[in-house]
Amino acid sequence: QVRLQESGPGLVKPSETLSLTCTVSDGSMSYHYWSWIRQPPGKGLEWLGYIFYSGSTNYNPSLKSRLSISLDSSKSQFSLKLSYVTAEDSAVYYCARGSIIGGFPIWGQGTMVTVS
Amino acid sequence: QSALTQPASVSGSPGQSITISCTGPNSGVGSYNLVSWYQQHPGKAPKLIIYEGTKRPSGVSDRFSGSKSGNTASLTISGLQTEDEADYYCCSSVGGNSWVFGGGTKVTVL
Question: A44, B39, B63, B99: which has the highest count of C-beta atoms within 10 A?
C-alpha cells in the first residue's frame, strides 16, 4: 500500500512563502494526480491544486496567483509553495493521490502549518 | 469555484438510517458520477468511502451507500453505529481537471 508523508516547517511568518514536500513511499508517481488539500482548524476541506505525473498542473482559482506545485520523480516527491501567506493560510495541509473519477483514495497524515 | 452544499449536521440513533445530501451547481454533481465521499474522525486524515457516486472501495462497510438525483448527490448510512460518528465531506470533480469539496456534515449518534 502506497503511503504519503508531508514534511516542512510548522511555523511560517506572514508575507513569507510556505513550502511543503510530500514523499511517496513506493516511488510510483506515474498515471496519477498528486494533489494538495488543506483544512483550517475547525473548518472544512479545500482542494488547492494538483500536478499530474506528466508535469501538468491546475490550481484552485482562489489561490492561483500564489500557488505553485512541482514534481521530482527521481526523489518520489511533489512539493507545494504558497507565497505571501497570511493567518488565513494556517491549516492542516494534506497531500493526496487521486483521479478524476476515483476521488482521493490515498492521503498523507497531514501537517499543521501556522502563520504567525 | 463554489463549495458544494451539505447540511451542517445530521443525527440518528443506533440502528437507524441517515442520509446526507450534497448539492452543487457544477456539472460534476449534475451530469456525471464524479462525486466522492469522505469520512473524517477528529485528528485523522479523511478516508474515501464512496467514489464514482455509488462505488465503495475495498474494505468499506456496505452500510455506506451513495446515490444521485439531478444536481444532488446523497450518502446514506444504514444501521448507524457509534463509530460512524464523524464528519463527512462530499467532493466533485469540476470540468475534469479540478475538485471542489462540500462544507462538511457532522454526524452525531444519539
Answer: B99
pLDDT tens-place string over residues A31-90? 889 999 999 999 999 999 999 989 999 999 999 899 999 999 999 999 999 999 999 999
User: For residue A51, how far is the Cα from the chain centroid?
Assistant: 10
Of A47, A62, A109, which has the smallest distance from its Cβ to B99's Cβ? A47
B53 in reach of chain A (CB within 8 A): no
What residues contact residue B33 under an 8 Å CB cut-off, 6+ apart?
A: A101, B52, B53, B54, B68
Q: What is the 3-state secondary structure (H, E, C) of A21-67?
A: EEEECCCCCCCCEEEEEEECCCCCCEEEEEEECCCCEEECCCCCCCE
B96 touches chain A (CB under 8 A): yes
How far, in Å, CA of B55 to CA of B88, rounded?
Answer: 16
Check CB contact under 8 Å for B101 and A46.
yes
